[in-house]
Amino acid sequence: MGALPYGPDLPVVLLTGGPGTGKQQLLEEVRDRFGGKAPVALVDCADPQYEREAGERPSCRSATTETLYDIAQRMEEWDGPGGAVPTPRFFAGMAAVAAAQGLRQQELDEELTRYRRLLHASQTAAVRVIRNLTHGYLVALAAVVAPPAAMPLVGAALTEFIETLAAKGDEPVQTTYRDYPGAAGNAATGLRLLGRSFRRSEEGRRFAEGFLFRALREDVTAAYSGAGARLRRVGRPAILLQHSNWPVGRELLAAALDDWAEGHRGRTVLVASERMAEPLFLAGEQRTEELAVYRPDEQAPPRTWERLPARGQLGQAVLLLRMPSLTSVQIKQQVLEEVGAVDSAGLLLRAQGAVRRLSGHRPRMVQRLAEAAAHLPVLDNDRDLLAHPALLDGAPAPVRDVLLEELVLRQLPERLPVGHADRWLDLLTQLSVAHTGDCARTLLRSAELEQLAGGLTADQVQQYLLESGWPACERHFIGDFGLRQLLMCRLYGPTAAGPAPRPPADTRTPAASSDRTGAGTGTGTRTDWHRNHSLLHAHYRALPAAPDHAFGTTAAHGLNHDLVAGGGPERAIRHLAAEFPASGARAEEWCEELLAIAQAPLLRGPDVRHARMKVAGIVGTTLERQLDQLLHAVWLCEERTRPADVAAAEKMVGLLGDLALAYPEAAPVLADRAGDWGKRAAGKRPLQPCACTSHIGQGS
Questions:
Q1: Which of 73, 169, 94 minimizes the C-alpha distance to 124?
Q2: 3-class DSSP state for residue 239?
Q3: Are residues 114 and 78 in the same domain?
C-alpha cells in the first residue's frame, strides 16, 4: 500500500454552504462510496434523537455523548476489510462517567450494559481481557468516586486492572487517560477526574466530552496501527458530521481542533458541514490570510495540504470547501433529464430560463424546479412554475410548498427560540415585502406583525437568516432571490395568470399541509400583502425628504411600495416629473430614483405595462406622458422573473434619447444611462444589479 496523502497532518474538512447546496448529499456520497472499503460513520448533529436519549438519564448522558456513542456503534458494526473497530478507550470513559454519578445499582448496571457491546468488536488481547474482567472492572469504576475512605481500595483495584492490560501487550486505557489534565500520568486518576468533570459544571462537562471524542478517535487510530492492521485494513476511517453548526457539532469540531493544536493527530478523516461561509467559531480569530479554499467547480483538488503559519489556532487545521453552484449547462441537463424528448423547443427554453432565475443555481432548488417543469407548463411569469407539482415524501404538492418545507421548515435556525418554530415561516412570508432593515422594523411595529413576531426583532430575524446560510443583499431584506420568490408567492396567493398554488386536499401529506407551508394561501393572508405595502408607503411618505441608501430617497422607497399596493403609477409619475432634472442638477440621483421605483414586483391584476409604454395613460403635460411611458418600459426591463423584454429595452433607450434631445442640460447623464441600461438589457441583466440578482444574465 502506498503512502497516504497528507501523512499524519490531516485537515478538518469543512463543507460550507446554505440550505439546498448539497452538503448532505456529498456526505452521503462519501459514506456510500468509501463506506465499503473503510469504516465511515455519518451522524447528524441536529438529530433530536440524541437529546431524547440523553434525557432518559441526564446525569451521565448528554447529546454529545449520545452522538459519540452512535459513532462508536457504527464503528463496532463495520464488517468490511479488517473487521469491526473496537472502542475500549471510549468504553472506559463512558463507564467512568456512569460510575461517577451516584446512580442506584440497577441504573448503573443498565448504563454499563449498554456500552458493553462496544467491546465485542474484536478479539485482540486487550479486548479479551476487558471482556473477561468486565465485571470486576465495572465494580472498580463504580467506586472510583466513592468517599475518600474507600479510595485506597478503589485505586488498587483500578491500577491492577490497567496493569493486567499492559501485561497482555496492550494498554489502550492507560495510554489515553494518564494524559487527562491533573492525572499526573495515572490512568485511574484520569478516569476519576473525567467522571468528576462531567458532573461538576457545564464547562467541565464540555471538556470531558471533548476528551471522550479524543479517546474515540484514538480507538479508531489504534485499529489501523500495527503490522496486522496494515495487512488487513485499507485507506483511512472517517467521521462525517452533518450540521456541525449545531451545538454538538461545534463542540466536537472545537475539541478536535484543540487536540490538533496540542499535537494529538490521528489517522481519522473528519469532514463536517456548516451553513455559514465564515463559521462562527472561526469568526473571532485574528488572521492575516484567508482560509484554504477548494472550489470543485473551478479547480482540481489540491495535491498537498499546506498550512499557512499566520492563522488563528483553530483555523490552522481547517480546510474550507465551499459548495459550488450548478452551471447553466448543468441546469439545462437537469431539466432535459426531467422533460425528456420534447416537441416545443420554445417551451423547453422558457422552462430552463425559469429554473435558472428562480433557483439561483442552488442544487436543491434546481432539482425541484426541474421536476415541476417536467411537463413544460406555459409560463407567463416564472412564479407560475411554483404552482406546479413536485413530490414531497412521495406525495404531490406545489413545488413552492415542497421547497419551503425542505429549505425553511426542516432547516430552522439553530438559535431560534423553541416557541417561534411554528411561526417562523409565516414571519418570513410577511417580511418578504421588506427591502431594508428599516422596512422590516416598520412592519414589525404594526399590531398584526408585532404579535406574529412574538418579541423577535428585525435584526434578530436577519441574523438568524445569515446563520442559517442564507445570503444578505443590500437591497432586499430576504437576501436570496429564489427564497424571496417562494415567500412572495405564498403571501400574494395566485399570480395574475396562474391558478391558486394549492393541491387537492387528499393529495397533501402532513408535512406539506396548509398548516405549514400552505398557511399563506388562506383568504385572510391574501390581504396581508396589500396591508404591508400600504403601511410602508404611508411610513416613507410621512418622512421628510431624505437620502435612502437602497432607494436614493425616502420618497422613491415609498412610491415603490405604492406601485405594488395598487395605488397606480400616477403618484410616481407626478413625483418623477416634479423632480425631473431639466437643469441637469441631480440628474444621476433622479435616474436612481426611477430605477428604484420601477423595481416593484407585479403579482396581481392585469399587466398594462406594454400598453402604457406605447401610449401614455396619464392625463398631464408632455413630460408626464413621456415619463409614464418611460416608467412602464423600465418597469418591464427590471422584471427579474421573466425573460428579457427586447421591445421594452428598445423603447426605454428611445425614450431616454428623446428626453436627452429635449433637455440639453440633462442630456449627458440621460444619454449615458441610455447606453448603459441598453447594454445591460441586451445582456439580459438587471439594470440595477444587487447581490441576490447577480446570477441573472445572458444565460437566463
A1: 169
A2: strand
A3: yes
389, containing H or E segment? strand 389-392
Total domains, the chain:
3
User: Domain check: are 584 and 518 in the same one?
Assistant: no
Indicate whether 278 belongs to any domain. Answer: no
Q: Using the 3D structure, point to which of 495, 528, 561 is the last residue of a domain.
A: 528
The span from the CA of 122 to the CA of 82, in Å, is 10
Residue 384 located in a structural domain:
no
Other beta carbons within 10 angstroms of residue 154's beta carbon come to: 21
Question: Is 318 among the domain residues?
Answer: no
Residues 218 and 102 in one domain: yes
CA distance 140 to 47: 34
Of 539, 527, 613, which Cα lies nearest the Cα of 569? 613
Reported as a single tens digit per residue, the pLDDT across 192-224 is 899 889 988 899 999 999 999 999 999 998 888
| Dist CA 103 CA 105 (whole Å) | 6
DSSP 19-31: TTSSHHHHHHHHH
Strands 318-322 and 389-392: unpaired
What is the distance, to the nearest Å, from the Cα of residue 324 to the centroid of all Cα atoms in its chain?
13
Same domain, 258 and 185: yes
Q: Give the DSSP per-residue string, 177-202.
A: HTTSTT-TT-HHHHHHHHHHHHHH-H
Cα–Cα distance measured from residue 275 to residue 21, given in angstroms and rounded to the nearest whole number: 9
Phi, psi angles (nearest 5°) of residue 398: -55, 140
452 in the same domain as 577:
no
Residue with cell 495487512: 231
Distance between CA atoms of residues 363 and 255, nearest Å: 32
pLDDT of residue 552: 86
Order across the sheet with 318-322: list the strands. Answer: 40-44, 238-242, 269-274, 12-16, 318-322, 292-294
- Total-model pTM: 0.85
Number of H helices, E strands in the chain: 31, 10
**Long-range pairs for 670-679 at CB < 8 Å and ≥24 separation?**
670/587, 670/591, 673/591, 677/634, 677/637, 677/649, 677/652, 677/653, 678/649, 678/652, 678/653
Q: Is the pLDDT of residue 161 over 70?
A: no
Same domain, yes or no: 441 and 556: no
Q: Which helix or strand (DSSP H or E) is residue 425 part of?
A: helix 424-431
Per the prediction, the chain carries an average pLDDT of 83
Q: How many residues does the chain have?
A: 700
The domain of 138 spans 25-263
- Assess contact for 168 and 135: CB atoms under 8 A: no
Q: Which residue has the cell 456520497?
A: 29
CA 373 to chain centroid: 25
Q: Match 448543468 to its residue by C-alpha cell.
A: 330
- Shared domain for 521 and 549, answered yes or no, is no
Residue 49 lies in a domain: yes
Count of CB atoms situated within 10 Å of the CB of 347:
17
Dig out the grid coordinates for 140 from the structure: 472498580
Q: What confidence score (pLDDT) does residue 46 get?
A: 92
